[in-house]
Design brief:
The protein is mostly beta strands. The protein has a domain of about 180 residues: 7 Propeller (Methylamine Dehydrogenase, Chain H). It contains two helices and 26 strands. A four-stranded antiparallel β-sheet has the order 1-2-3-4. Strands 5-6-7-8 form a four-stranded antiparallel β-sheet, with no helix packed on it. It is globular and about 45 Å long. It starts with a helix and ends with a strand. The relative contact order is 0.12.
């Protein structure tokens, strides 16, 4: 881990960043026990989320998986066989999906996130998984700490490890960009690109030596990178060259969401919420998206109907009104 990363790990807010940068939490044997049904689960630390048709599925600490069928107004806790911290979820359609987390855990659902089964679990490896993505119902990848890269060709029932780089930087996020192109955002400025659906990878030149925690591909060539100390860069040529986006914040940025055409929302720790209306060329605060008064960390944003947004983070879930 870089010294810059360790410098931001303090207090409760560090728990959110722990899930993002793969520092190990002491779950140990507790990870093998079923997640406890908790009334306050929607207010607990939540890190990843995805849409499953009209359903929302979000994941977080203690193996919590929550589903909503009313645009985030109410939530039901799913049955999960483990208590490990869950960091990301990918839903292929309204029924089939996968979630990943600490203890090298991969879960699989066939009923839209209501129940889950363990597809991969290796706590002895001490390498958390941080993101998961599937091309279709059979082929997918999971990435995580220390260069951890797993691939499946049978719908996530079995997984095989691969090495994409001699360095063992944390692989924090995997992002599809269309036409078989994928990007991975990683620790210490690491950026990788695949032009063949993940079969081979090439390390790109990075404009910044700090960690990247997320990326957003607007198309095959236009890419946004978000990371430590408010760092944000934009590429219009598939990551061959980069332009800095001035964010005017030192908060670690955790992601970006295309709310609707012409409106981007960038999230971060310390309640950071930035808006772009020019495709990520510039960002600023916006009265339509007020920062959280508690300054709690935001891990991810999901689009709701009517231009509204759902935030996930230390506070659990929070809905924001729509913006013009």
């Amino acid at each position: 881990m870089t010294s810059a990363t360790s410098g931001v790990l303090s207090g409760l807010r560090s728990r959110l960043l722990l899930g993002l940068v793969a520092c190990l939490l002491p779950f140990g044997a507790a990870g093998a026990q079923p997640a406890v049904q908790a009334r306050l689960a929607p207010e607990s630390l939540l890190i990843g989320g995805a849409s499953a048709g009209s359903r929302l599925v979000v994941v977080g600490e203690r193996g919590h998986v929550l589903v909503s069928d009313d645009d985030g107004s109410s939530w039901k806790q799913a049955r999960v066989p483990v208590r490990a911290l869950l960091t990301a979820v990918h839903m292929h359609d309204a029924r089939l999906g996968w979630a990943v987390g600490h203890d090298a855990l991969i879960l699989r659902t066939e009923d839209g996130g209501a129940t889950w089964s363990v597809a991969h679990y290796a706590p002895e490896e001490e390498r958390p998984l941080l993101d998961v993505w599937f091309r279709d119902e059979r082929y997918g990848f999971a990435v995580g700490a220390y260069g951890y890269f797993l691939a499946t060709s049978d719908g996530g029932r079995t997984w095989k490890p691969r090495t994409i780089d001699k360095d063992d930087f944390h692989l924090n996020a995997i992002v599809p960009a269309g036409a078989g192109r994928l990007f991975i955002a990683g620790e210490a400025g690491a950026i990788y690109r695949s032009d063949d659906g993940g079969s081979t990878w090439r390390k790109l030149s990075s404009p910044y030596a700090g960690s990247w925690f997320s990326a957003l591909a607007l198309d095959a060539d236009r890419l946004l990178l978000m990371g430590l100390r408010g760092s944000m860069y934009r590429s219009e040529d598939g990551g061959e060259s980069w332009t800095r986006v001035r964010t005017r914040t030192k908060a670690t940025l955790t992601g970006a969401l295309l709310v609707k055409p012409g409106l981007l929302l960038v999230t971060g720790l310390e309640g950071a919420l930035l808006v772009s209306r020019d495709g990520g060329r510039s960002v600023s605060t916006d009265a339509a998206f007020k920062p959280l008064t508690s300054r709690l960390g935001i891990s991810k944003a999901l689009a709701l109907s009517g231009g509204r947004v759902l935030l996930l983070g230390e506070f659990g879930v929070k809905r924001l009104p729509g913006a013009r």
